[in-house]
Amino acid sequence: MKIIAAMSGGVDSAVAAARAVEAGHEVIGVHLALASNPQKYRSGARGCCTIEDSHDARRAADKIGIPFYIWDMAEEFHDGVVENFLAEYAAGRTPNPCLRCNEKIKFAAVLDRAKAMGFDGVVTGHYARTEIGPMGKTLHRAVDPLKDQSYVLAVLTTEQINGAIFPLGDTEKVDIRIEAEARGLAVAQKPDSHDICFVPSGDNAGWLRDRLGSEVGPIVDQSGRKIGEHNGAYTYTIGQRKGLGLSVAAPDGSPRFVLKIEPVTNTVVVGAREDLAVNKLFGEKTIWCGPAVGADPLRGFVQVRAHGAPLDCTYFFDGQRLIAELDEPLLGIANGQAMVIYDGDRVVGSATICESA
Amino acid sequence: MSVYLDHAATTPIFDVALDAMQIALRKVGNPSSLHTEGRSTRKDVEDAREIIAKAVGCLPSEVIFTGSGTEADNAAIKGLFWKSGKKVIVISSIEHHAVLDPARWLVEHEGAELIEIPVNKSGVIDLDFLKELISKRGSEIALISVMHSNNETGVIQPIGDVVKLAGDIPVHTDAVQSFTKAPLSYKELGLTSMALSGHKVGGPHGIGALILRRAYEIPALLHGGGQEREIRSGTLNAPSIVAFAAAVASHQYRAEEVEKLRERFETGLAASVPDAYINGVSADRLPGIVNVTFPGTQSDSLLLLMDSENVSCSTGAACSAGVHRPSHVLLAMGHTEITAQSSLRFSLGANSTEADVDFALSVLPTVIARGRAANQK
Question: Does B307 touch chain A (CB under 8 A)?
Answer without folding.
Answer: yes
